[in-house]
Write a structure and sequence with these properties.
The protein is α/β, with parallel strands linked by helices and about 400 residues long. It contains 15 helices and eleven strands. The protein binds calcium ion.
Length: about 400
Protein backbone atom coordinates (compact mmCIF):
# COMPACT_ATOMS: atom_id res chain seq x y z
CA UNK A 1 0.00 0.00 0.00
CA UNK A 2 1.24 3.50 -0.88
CA UNK A 3 0.30 7.05 0.11
CA UNK A 4 -1.12 8.86 -2.94
CA UNK A 5 -2.29 12.21 -1.56
CA UNK A 6 -2.18 14.39 1.58
CA UNK A 7 -4.88 17.04 1.72
CA UNK A 8 -5.83 19.72 4.28
CA UNK A 9 -9.33 20.98 4.93
CA UNK A 10 -9.54 24.23 6.92
CA UNK A 11 -13.09 24.69 8.22
CA UNK A 12 -14.41 27.89 9.76
CA UNK A 13 -17.62 29.61 10.90
CA UNK A 14 -18.63 32.74 12.81
CA UNK A 15 -19.38 31.97 16.46
CA UNK A 16 -22.79 33.12 17.75
CA UNK A 17 -20.89 35.26 20.28
CA UNK A 18 -17.28 36.35 20.73
CA UNK A 19 -15.25 34.38 23.31
CA UNK A 20 -12.03 35.29 25.07
CA UNK A 21 -9.12 33.98 27.09
CA UNK A 22 -6.20 35.84 28.63
CA UNK A 23 -4.45 36.49 25.29
CA UNK A 24 -7.27 37.55 22.93
CA UNK A 25 -10.95 37.55 21.98
CA UNK A 26 -12.01 35.43 19.01
CA UNK A 27 -15.16 35.53 16.89
CA UNK A 28 -14.61 32.48 14.63
CA UNK A 29 -14.14 28.76 15.21
CA UNK A 30 -11.60 26.99 12.99
CA UNK A 31 -10.68 23.32 12.52
CA UNK A 32 -7.85 21.92 10.39
CA UNK A 33 -8.48 18.35 9.22
CA UNK A 34 -5.93 16.25 7.31
CA UNK A 35 -6.99 13.55 4.84
CA UNK A 36 -4.39 10.98 3.71
CA UNK A 37 -5.36 8.86 0.67
CA UNK A 38 -3.86 5.52 -0.44
CA UNK A 39 -3.73 3.47 -3.64
CA UNK A 40 -6.00 0.82 -2.06
CA UNK A 41 -8.91 3.14 -1.34
CA UNK A 42 -8.36 3.43 2.44
CA UNK A 43 -8.45 7.03 3.70
CA UNK A 44 -7.15 8.25 7.07
CA UNK A 45 -8.15 11.38 9.01
CA UNK A 46 -6.15 13.53 11.37
CA UNK A 47 -6.25 17.02 12.88
CA UNK A 48 -3.72 19.82 13.37
CA UNK A 49 -3.93 22.17 16.36
CA UNK A 50 -3.91 25.87 15.45
CA UNK A 51 -6.70 28.44 14.92
CA UNK A 52 -7.59 30.85 12.09
CA UNK A 53 -4.68 32.07 9.95
CA UNK A 54 -2.36 29.57 11.74
CA UNK A 55 -4.46 26.74 10.26
CA UNK A 56 -4.30 28.28 6.78
CA UNK A 57 -0.49 28.57 7.04
CA UNK A 58 -0.22 25.00 8.38
CA UNK A 59 -2.17 23.79 5.31
CA UNK A 60 0.76 25.10 3.26
CA UNK A 61 3.18 22.97 5.32
CA UNK A 62 0.96 19.85 5.16
CA UNK A 63 0.36 19.98 1.40
CA UNK A 64 3.44 21.84 0.17
CA UNK A 65 6.21 20.56 2.46
CA UNK A 66 5.17 17.21 4.01
CA UNK A 67 3.11 15.77 1.13
CA UNK A 68 6.06 15.53 -1.32
CA UNK A 69 8.14 13.80 1.39
CA UNK A 70 5.59 11.01 1.94
CA UNK A 71 3.97 10.32 -1.46
CA UNK A 72 4.71 6.72 -2.45
CA UNK A 73 5.63 5.57 1.09
CA UNK A 74 3.90 2.69 2.91
CA UNK A 75 1.42 4.32 5.37
CA UNK A 76 2.05 1.53 7.91
CA UNK A 77 5.63 2.74 8.41
CA UNK A 78 4.55 5.49 10.79
CA UNK A 79 7.75 5.87 12.78
CA UNK A 80 9.98 5.83 9.68
CA UNK A 81 7.75 8.47 8.06
CA UNK A 82 7.76 10.55 11.25
CA UNK A 83 11.55 10.64 11.39
CA UNK A 84 11.97 11.29 7.67
CA UNK A 85 9.67 14.33 7.87
CA UNK A 86 11.07 15.58 11.19
CA UNK A 87 14.68 15.26 10.10
CA UNK A 88 14.01 17.14 6.85
CA UNK A 89 12.10 19.93 8.68
CA UNK A 90 14.42 20.09 11.73
CA UNK A 91 16.50 23.03 10.46
CA UNK A 92 13.30 25.02 9.89
CA UNK A 93 11.34 24.34 13.08
CA UNK A 94 11.74 21.76 15.86
CA UNK A 95 8.66 23.24 17.53
CA UNK A 96 5.55 25.14 16.52
CA UNK A 97 3.76 25.04 13.21
CA UNK A 98 5.85 22.36 11.43
CA UNK A 99 5.14 20.00 14.34
CA UNK A 100 1.43 20.90 14.31
CA UNK A 101 1.37 20.05 10.59
CA UNK A 102 3.20 16.74 11.11
CA UNK A 103 0.77 15.86 13.93
CA UNK A 104 -2.29 15.83 11.65
CA UNK A 105 -0.53 13.63 9.07
CA UNK A 106 0.70 11.18 11.74
CA UNK A 107 -2.79 10.79 13.28
CA UNK A 108 -4.20 10.03 9.80
CA UNK A 109 -1.56 7.29 9.36
CA UNK A 110 -2.70 5.68 12.63
CA UNK A 111 -6.29 5.80 11.37
CA UNK A 112 -5.17 4.01 8.20
CA UNK A 113 -3.17 1.41 10.18
CA UNK A 114 -6.19 0.63 12.35
CA UNK A 115 -8.42 0.19 9.32
CA UNK A 116 -5.89 -2.16 7.65
CA UNK A 117 -5.58 -4.27 10.81
CA UNK A 118 -9.26 -4.10 11.73
CA UNK A 119 -8.37 -2.72 15.20
CA UNK A 120 -9.22 0.52 17.02
CA UNK A 121 -6.23 2.83 17.66
CA UNK A 122 -6.25 2.07 21.40
CA UNK A 123 -5.67 -1.61 20.57
CA UNK A 124 -2.80 -0.72 18.21
CA UNK A 125 -1.19 1.33 20.98
CA UNK A 126 -1.26 -1.69 23.31
CA UNK A 127 -4.79 -2.20 24.55
CA UNK A 128 -7.37 -0.38 26.64
CA UNK A 129 -6.92 0.03 30.40
CA UNK A 130 -10.51 1.34 30.64
CA UNK A 131 -13.59 1.29 28.42
CA UNK A 132 -14.77 4.76 29.42
CA UNK A 133 -13.25 7.94 30.88
CA UNK A 134 -14.70 10.72 33.04
CA UNK A 135 -15.00 14.08 31.30
CA UNK A 136 -14.53 17.57 32.67
CA UNK A 137 -16.26 20.50 31.02
CA UNK A 138 -14.54 23.77 30.43
CA UNK A 139 -16.32 27.05 29.84
CA UNK A 140 -16.35 30.36 31.69
CA UNK A 141 -14.61 32.29 28.92
CA UNK A 142 -13.79 35.99 29.13
CA UNK A 143 -16.09 38.56 27.49
CA UNK A 144 -16.05 42.33 27.01
CA UNK A 145 -18.07 42.94 30.18
CA UNK A 146 -17.45 44.24 33.71
CA UNK A 147 -15.77 42.25 36.50
CA UNK A 148 -19.11 42.12 38.33
CA UNK A 149 -20.85 40.68 35.26
CA UNK A 150 -18.06 38.07 34.94
CA UNK A 151 -18.47 37.12 38.60
CA UNK A 152 -22.23 36.55 38.29
CA UNK A 153 -21.91 34.66 35.00
CA UNK A 154 -18.99 32.45 36.14
CA UNK A 155 -20.80 31.32 39.30
CA UNK A 156 -23.92 30.33 37.32
CA UNK A 157 -21.97 28.70 34.50
CA UNK A 158 -19.79 26.60 36.83
CA UNK A 159 -22.91 25.24 38.53
CA UNK A 160 -24.59 24.63 35.16
CA UNK A 161 -21.62 22.63 33.76
CA UNK A 162 -21.56 20.33 36.80
CA UNK A 163 -25.36 19.98 36.59
CA UNK A 164 -24.86 18.67 33.01
CA UNK A 165 -23.05 15.72 34.61
CA UNK A 166 -19.40 16.69 34.10
CA UNK A 167 -17.11 15.46 36.84
CA UNK A 168 -15.28 18.81 37.14
CA UNK A 169 -15.13 22.19 35.42
CA UNK A 170 -12.45 24.62 34.27
CA UNK A 171 -12.52 28.42 34.04
CA UNK A 172 -10.41 31.07 32.34
CA UNK A 173 -8.68 33.96 34.10
CA UNK A 174 -6.97 36.99 32.60
CA UNK A 175 -8.62 40.20 33.83
CA UNK A 176 -5.69 40.94 36.18
CA UNK A 177 -4.73 39.20 39.45
CA UNK A 178 -7.15 40.96 41.81
CA UNK A 179 -10.17 40.61 39.52
CA UNK A 180 -9.14 37.02 38.72
CA UNK A 181 -9.27 36.02 42.40
CA UNK A 182 -12.89 37.30 42.47
CA UNK A 183 -13.70 35.14 39.42
CA UNK A 184 -12.12 32.09 41.07
CA UNK A 185 -14.11 32.67 44.26
CA UNK A 186 -17.30 32.89 42.18
CA UNK A 187 -16.56 29.53 40.55
CA UNK A 188 -15.69 27.98 43.92
CA UNK A 189 -19.15 29.06 45.14
CA UNK A 190 -20.76 27.72 41.95
CA UNK A 191 -19.27 24.21 42.34
CA UNK A 192 -19.65 23.95 46.13
CA UNK A 193 -21.01 20.54 47.07
CA UNK A 194 -21.10 19.44 43.39
CA UNK A 195 -17.50 18.82 42.24
CA UNK A 196 -14.04 20.21 41.56
CA UNK A 197 -12.84 23.22 39.58
CA UNK A 198 -9.64 24.12 37.76
CA UNK A 199 -8.19 27.45 36.64
CA UNK A 200 -6.55 28.16 33.26
CA UNK A 201 -4.48 31.36 33.00
CA UNK A 202 -3.11 30.72 29.48
CA UNK A 203 0.28 32.01 30.74
CA UNK A 204 -0.77 35.60 31.51
CA UNK A 205 1.02 36.13 34.86
CA UNK A 206 4.43 37.07 36.13
CA UNK A 207 5.67 34.65 38.78
CA UNK A 208 4.73 37.02 41.62
CA UNK A 209 1.21 37.58 40.24
CA UNK A 210 0.86 33.82 39.82
CA UNK A 211 1.77 33.39 43.51
CA UNK A 212 -0.89 35.96 44.45
CA UNK A 213 -3.61 34.07 42.53
CA UNK A 214 -2.17 30.65 43.47
CA UNK A 215 -2.26 31.37 47.24
CA UNK A 216 -5.95 32.25 46.90
CA UNK A 217 -6.50 28.99 44.99
CA UNK A 218 -4.76 27.08 47.80
CA UNK A 219 -7.43 28.39 50.18
CA UNK A 220 -10.30 27.66 47.76
CA UNK A 221 -9.21 24.06 47.12
CA UNK A 222 -8.86 24.36 43.32
CA UNK A 223 -7.69 21.09 41.74
CA UNK A 224 -5.13 22.61 39.36
CA UNK A 225 -3.67 25.94 38.20
CA UNK A 226 -2.96 25.67 34.45
CA UNK A 227 -0.26 27.57 32.53
CA UNK A 228 0.21 30.21 35.26
CA UNK A 229 3.34 31.62 33.58
CA UNK A 230 4.91 31.57 30.10
CA UNK A 231 5.87 28.10 28.84
CA UNK A 232 9.49 29.25 28.44
CA UNK A 233 9.66 30.24 32.14
CA UNK A 234 10.86 26.92 33.57
CA UNK A 235 12.18 28.62 36.73
CA UNK A 236 8.77 30.17 37.36
CA UNK A 237 7.04 26.77 37.07
CA UNK A 238 9.50 25.16 39.49
CA UNK A 239 9.16 27.95 42.07
CA UNK A 240 5.34 27.89 41.86
CA UNK A 241 5.20 24.12 42.21
CA UNK A 242 7.40 24.10 45.29
CA UNK A 243 5.65 27.12 46.87
CA UNK A 244 1.94 26.37 46.30
CA UNK A 245 -0.39 23.58 47.43
CA UNK A 246 -2.56 23.68 44.28
CA UNK A 247 -1.38 21.35 41.47
CA UNK A 248 0.55 23.15 38.74
CA UNK A 249 -0.30 21.96 35.22
CA UNK A 250 0.84 22.86 31.72
CA UNK A 251 2.60 21.66 28.61
CA UNK A 252 0.04 22.25 25.84
CA UNK A 253 2.51 24.68 24.18
CA UNK A 254 5.43 22.20 24.25
CA UNK A 255 6.27 19.92 21.32
CA UNK A 256 8.44 16.82 20.86
CA UNK A 257 10.32 14.65 23.33
CA UNK A 258 13.27 17.04 23.65
CA UNK A 259 11.22 19.97 24.93
CA UNK A 260 9.26 17.65 27.19
CA UNK A 261 12.46 16.20 28.62
CA UNK A 262 13.47 19.72 29.76
CA UNK A 263 10.06 20.44 31.32
CA UNK A 264 10.00 17.17 33.22
CA UNK A 265 13.59 17.28 34.44
CA UNK A 266 12.85 20.80 35.72
CA UNK A 267 10.20 19.32 38.10
CA UNK A 268 7.78 22.23 37.57
CA UNK A 269 4.61 20.25 36.75
CA UNK A 270 2.25 18.25 38.97
CA UNK A 271 0.11 17.35 35.93
CA UNK A 272 1.31 17.22 32.31
CA UNK A 273 -1.05 18.27 29.49
CA UNK A 274 0.41 17.17 26.13
CA UNK A 275 -1.52 18.16 22.96
CA UNK A 276 -1.42 15.26 20.47
CA UNK A 277 -2.56 17.45 17.54
CA UNK A 278 0.44 19.76 18.08
CA UNK A 279 3.37 17.91 19.64
CA UNK A 280 3.94 15.50 16.74
CA UNK A 281 0.91 13.19 16.56
CA UNK A 282 0.26 9.82 18.21
CA UNK A 283 3.75 8.50 17.37
CA UNK A 284 5.47 11.28 19.35
CA UNK A 285 2.73 11.43 22.01
CA UNK A 286 3.63 7.89 23.06
CA UNK A 287 7.25 8.89 23.62
CA UNK A 288 6.18 12.00 25.57
CA UNK A 289 3.76 9.90 27.68
CA UNK A 290 6.58 7.45 28.47
CA UNK A 291 8.82 10.37 29.51
CA UNK A 292 6.05 11.78 31.76
CA UNK A 293 5.51 8.40 33.41
CA UNK A 294 9.28 7.88 33.74
CA UNK A 295 9.16 11.04 35.91
CA UNK A 296 5.99 9.78 37.69
CA UNK A 297 4.14 12.83 36.37
CA UNK A 298 0.44 12.10 35.75
CA UNK A 299 -1.00 13.08 32.34
CA UNK A 300 -4.33 14.68 31.46
CA UNK A 301 -4.31 15.36 27.72
CA UNK A 302 -4.97 18.85 26.43
CA UNK A 303 -7.94 18.60 24.03
CA UNK A 304 -9.08 21.35 21.67
CA UNK A 305 -10.70 21.15 18.24
CA UNK A 306 -13.12 19.02 16.27
CA UNK A 307 -14.60 15.57 16.83
CA UNK A 308 -11.47 14.11 15.17
CA UNK A 309 -9.27 15.55 17.96
CA UNK A 310 -11.74 14.41 20.65
CA UNK A 311 -11.84 10.86 19.22
CA UNK A 312 -8.04 10.68 18.93
CA UNK A 313 -7.78 11.62 22.60
CA UNK A 314 -10.42 9.08 23.67
CA UNK A 315 -8.24 6.30 22.19
CA UNK A 316 -5.12 7.64 23.92
CA UNK A 317 -6.87 8.07 27.28
CA UNK A 318 -8.14 4.47 27.03
CA UNK A 319 -4.62 3.18 26.35
CA UNK A 320 -2.90 5.25 29.07
CA UNK A 321 -1.35 2.95 31.71
CA UNK A 322 -2.39 3.54 35.33
CA UNK A 323 0.13 5.57 37.34
CA UNK A 324 1.28 3.93 39.53
CA UNK A 325 -1.66 1.46 39.63
CA UNK A 326 -3.89 0.14 42.40
CA UNK A 327 -7.39 -0.96 43.28
CA UNK A 328 -8.66 2.61 43.00
CA UNK A 329 -6.08 4.20 40.71
CA UNK A 330 -5.66 7.83 39.75
CA UNK A 331 -7.60 8.26 36.49
CA UNK A 332 -7.14 10.61 33.54
CA UNK A 333 -10.05 12.78 32.37
CA UNK A 334 -11.25 13.89 28.93
CA UNK A 335 -11.05 17.67 28.51
CA UNK A 336 -14.27 18.85 26.90
CA UNK A 337 -15.09 22.32 25.56
CA UNK A 338 -18.70 23.21 26.45
CA UNK A 339 -18.77 26.36 24.27
CA UNK A 340 -20.37 26.48 20.80
CA UNK A 341 -18.55 24.05 18.45
CA UNK A 342 -20.21 22.85 15.23
CA UNK A 343 -17.08 20.85 14.33
CA UNK A 344 -17.58 18.72 17.40
CA UNK A 345 -21.35 18.34 17.16
CA UNK A 346 -22.05 18.24 13.39
CA UNK A 347 -18.85 16.92 11.72
CA UNK A 348 -19.28 13.14 12.04
CA UNK A 349 -21.67 10.89 10.15
CA UNK A 350 -22.37 9.29 13.58
CA UNK A 351 -21.93 11.99 16.27
CA UNK A 352 -20.08 11.11 19.51
CA UNK A 353 -22.82 12.82 21.57
CA UNK A 354 -20.42 13.48 24.44
CA UNK A 355 -22.87 15.73 26.27
CA UNK A 356 -25.58 13.06 26.07
CA UNK A 357 -23.20 10.38 27.33
CA UNK A 358 -22.03 12.59 30.21
CA UNK A 359 -25.64 13.20 31.24
CA UNK A 360 -26.57 9.49 31.04
CA UNK A 361 -23.39 7.85 32.42
CA UNK A 362 -22.46 9.89 35.53
CA UNK A 363 -19.93 12.03 33.66
CA UNK A 364 -18.28 9.21 31.70
CA UNK A 365 -17.68 8.84 27.94
CA UNK A 366 -17.34 5.50 26.09
CA UNK A 367 -14.19 4.69 24.08
CA UNK A 368 -14.82 4.17 20.32
CA UNK A 369 -14.42 0.52 19.30
CA UNK A 370 -14.43 0.53 15.47
CA UNK A 371 -11.16 0.11 13.48
CA UNK A 372 -8.80 3.09 13.28
CA UNK A 373 -10.22 6.28 14.76
CA UNK A 374 -13.59 4.65 14.25
CA UNK A 375 -15.25 7.85 13.09
CA UNK A 376 -15.64 9.49 9.67
CA UNK A 377 -16.24 13.18 8.87
CA UNK A 378 -19.32 13.96 6.76
CA UNK A 379 -18.13 15.27 3.33
CA UNK A 380 -21.20 17.51 3.13
CA UNK A 381 -20.24 19.22 6.42
CA UNK A 382 -16.65 19.66 5.23
CA UNK A 383 -17.88 21.24 1.98
CA UNK A 384 -20.24 23.56 3.86
CA UNK A 385 -17.57 24.99 6.23
CA UNK A 386 -14.40 24.75 4.10
CA UNK A 387 -12.53 28.06 3.64
CA UNK A 388 -9.10 26.73 2.53
CA1 LIG B 1 -5.20 25.54 28.51
Amino acid sequence: MRITRVQSHVLQYDLPEELGYSQQYYARRTAHLVEVSTDEGITGWGECFGPGPIAVANKGIVEGVIQPMVIGLDPLHRDAIWHKVYNLMRDHGQKGMPMQALSGVDIALWDIAGQIMGQPIHALVGGAHRDSVPAYGYGMMLKRESVADHVARFQDEAAAILDMGFTATKMKTGLGPEADVKLCAAVARGVEGKGRFMVDANHCYTTSDAFYVGRALDEMGAYWFEEPVAPEDLDGYRELRSGLKVNISGGEAEFGRWGWRQILENRGLDIAQPEVCALGGITEYQRVLALCHAHFTPVINHVWGSAIAVTTNLHLLAAMPPLPGGLHPWEPMLEFDTTHNSFRDELLTEPLDIQGQVARKQGRVAIPQKPGLGVVPDPEVIARFKVA
